[in-house]
Amino acid sequence: MTNLKKAAALAATAGLVVAGFALASPASATSWGPAIHEACDTSHSNAGDLCFFYNSNYGGSNIGFWGADANLGSYTFLTSGNGQYQGVWHNAGSDANYNTVHGATIYGAGGRTTSVPPNTSNNLGGNTYNVQESFAWWG
Fold this sequence. Notes:
Blueprint: H1 3-23, E1 36-38, E2 47-53, E3 62-66, E4 94-99, E5 103-108, E6 113-116, E7 120-123, H2 125-128, E8 132-138
Antiparallel strand pairs: 1-3, 2-3, 2-4, 4-7, 5-6, 5-8
């Protein structure tokens, strides 16, 4: 095989590998369910919501997400209580992950993050308290 044919074969192989990576979807919530938002729900067959609460200590209005969402600014707190109808963007004081399989990372302004392992909850504290902007599932 000539050097030109070897180079062409190598380029074709590399192109197929790159195309395969480009088409592969990352592991995320969308691989196990549609992206939905609702009042906090714990009943999605061991794949419950990631819930945000307006107040610390899981108080006030809440919203639950089943599936990742890149922009929390599009949503408002849904249930009755302090914060109902307020935007979720930069307004949550606590979270609870009712998913027993997947953890989540909450991303906030300035590169701040909070990790929420499966079946755990947090007061968002100084790291992402009232600065949360998006989240993504992992695991």
